[in-house]
Amino acid sequence: MEKLIETILCRDDSGNEYKVEVRQKFTLSRHMQGEDWIPGLKRASLPTGENVNYIDEFTFKIVPTGIILHRL
What we know:
The protein is mainly β.
């Protein structure tokens, strides 16, 4: 299962605003005491589907275009 865990408002150097959506995968683990969802990998993308790379805590890069985004 993949879940939206955070939406980050950003702006590029031209002043355009973007929303970066961070999603995380969860795996169901069954055991004697019941079930748990184990958090896995995170990924970031725009709502339109373009992948976004983390550069640092406050900076992102849209993969297809190379546009740099800064967290607001």
